[in-house]
Amino acid sequence: MTGILLTSTTSVNLDGGIEASGHWLIGRSSHRFIGREEESNLLLKRWEEVQEGRGHMMLLSGEAGIGKSRLIQELKEQLREQSICIETHCSPYHQQSAFYPVIDYIQRSLQFSREETNEAKRQKLERVMTRAHLEDAVPVVANLLSLPFPTSAYSTLTPQRQREKLLQVIVSWFFSLTRHKPVLTVWEDLHWADPSTLEWLGHLIEHVVAARLLVVLTFRPEFVPPWPTRSHLRPLTLSRFMSKDSETMIAKVVRGKKLPDEVVEQIVIKTDGVPLFVEESTKMILESGLLQEHQGAYVLTGPLPPLAIPVTVHDSLIARLDRLGAAREVAQLGATCGREFSYELIKAVSPLDEPSLRQALEKLVRTEVLYPRGIGQGSQYVFKHALIQDAAYQSLLKSKRQQYHQQIAYALEAQFPETKEAEPELLAHHYTEAGLSAQAVPYWHKSGQGAIQRSANAEAISHLKRALALLPELPDNDARVQLELALQTALGVPLMATKGYAAPEVESAYARARELCRHMGGTPQLFHVLGGLFAFYLVRGKLHTARTLAEQCLRLGENIGEPTFLLEAHRMLGNILIFLASFPWRCVT
Hints:
five-stranded parallel sheet, alpha/beta, 4 domains, Rossmann fold, 589 residues, single chain
């Protein structure tokens, strides 16, 4: 029996407003909801309060495969007619990509396509923001989406003020939707969320109580929510199935046909109440050839082997993937791309001709390894579960995995310029996993610089440290020294912002940079390095050392003859002389 899975996103209607839309994804199993009635009723109770204007945020936790996404699917289907549904996913490939799920949501809602010019995209954005009465915020969102925009008052703000403005605008955008209908917004896999997204969700928590907004955050137990307790912030933990629930799920997978009791017993025992494991193990045994159908029931063709049912969900998924034939390699290549990938990207890197590739993708959809979104060249594919993606990826030999990462990186660089520009950290990741450090380091550097410009300091530190960790794999020459100097100098800025000017990590970064400057001889970068050390020692209270550094900056500015260096050096020296109460001039009375 063919089932229907609904995933809701947002889209732009013809007159520029935002409305809910659904993409219907066809699959083989959309089983009746099993074993989560209590949790479902609790979410519906919270929804009733949301409809009355009291917003809530639910923290839905549980181990991988426990049914978090299935519970969300049931909630979406029940609220489909009475809500606007916004669904986002965090990604293990984008854990340090600032605001990744926010950007992904906005791009989907605006229905951006690769063929559109930046001007066309900007017009879409302006139309939608005007509809939401947020026309003044267009430059803010344009900057977030890496869209060129004419100089505005926003561009004159400091990076920190730009960030604060961005947090406010995104909240306002979400709230604008609630004027039309109550909003259900789901943020899945928060254990992979980037720091900026977590910061924004904390900002949302402070305002959600006064909005017709139900926010559901899903995550695995290892994630610890960083926000303080609030009356409208409710935890909801999913436990494993009872035996009777596992038996019910088995019956639904086999479509009511009876399985031998010993098979059911073994599935229940070995899957230990993990719903995804129950489902996948049942499918695997049906495909194994150990059963045959007889008079509306299944019977064993022989004794049940002791290892017929794997003891882990990973083994079960690997066994199912092994039976996919040529489609298995497409699943592995897709898994290397990420939890979600586009048809255009998989076509660019797959060795299969287009008819064979489409046939393989159709098989993966039919067997519920993948779910499709959209049609044609612009379609996307998402793995049914992160564990399935992980199993497909881990089944690759290391050499093959590196080859796939290299092919993907080359394709992104050559054929997807918008991704190369907006997501350099994605290319950095693929080059790193391909073992191509020389290509990876510049992209990590670019990612760090971009994060600094957006005051995404935690992400910037991560990117720059990834680059520094790869440097020993590059040839030991002047180019590597120059690159490390640029990385260490850049690293000092976000370290100051997150750990404080006097943090030991700040001194370490700038001290290493000064050492590199000495190795390189005279370089204009030395001025910024000395300025970083000056700030460190000034805040540390080591004023005489700070004065020496300020004087060095002044001499360097005089030698180079750069007016901005001279201005900054005099400011530094003036500040330190005030702290030292050293006034080398006479007051005239």
